[in-house]
Amino acid sequence: MTQTSDQNDAELARSVALAAGAVLRGLCVAGACPDAELGDRGDKDANTLIQRLLRAARPEDFILSEEAADDGARCAASRVWVVDPLDGTREFRERRDDWAVHIGLAIDGVPVTGAVALPAQNLVFASNDRPDVLPPAPLRPRMVVSRSRAHPIVLRVAEAIGAELVPMGSAGAKAMAVVRGNAEIYLHAGGQYEWDNCAPVAVALAAGLHASRIDGATLVYNCRDPLLPDVLICRPEYAAQVLAAVAETIPVVG
Question: Per the record's keyword annotation, is Coiled coil included, yes or no (predicted)?
Fold first, then answer.
């Protein structure tokens, strides 16, 4: 298709994530939005901006957003932007710093491009970044997990491999902790949708990390049903160990 902008897709994803992040930060300013409305207002305002920017830059592409009606016509499209305007609404409402903006692009089901902004930390990660050189893998890996509801599979795998648990908020923040070298493993089971992990997976793969379903299967996007309930993002040297532990754990908790 003919591009309608001189930005490449990764730079577009980065700029849109940053713009949405700026809107969300503005809502957090004291007096800008009543606390009781902060989460809903953040979801709505960020989604409105993202839709406008992407449609202006790539009018022929489709968009799958957590905060918009799903146009089933996207299923026949090659290029689909998969976005979460505000990942970690709970953390955003609490004015923590571990919420994110996800802008991903799947081409023929493959998460080829993405950007994840952590606006409260003034950080953004994109699939065209030069990957950081990670330090040597520690003997005891760190696994980022949900602050309040880590799935039994995740807890059993962590115990099996001797991982240190690091509670954290949004999926984007957890995935970027691995990209940044602040953790080695992000294992999630029990329920996500494509918008929860498309952009983080694109960034992680571009950084040379392992990303798959928790049974080792390839992650596929732009499916008719956007439910994508589990994901593993980790340093490659831990992938086989984690996948083996999952395989041994699932019959126990299933």
Answer: no
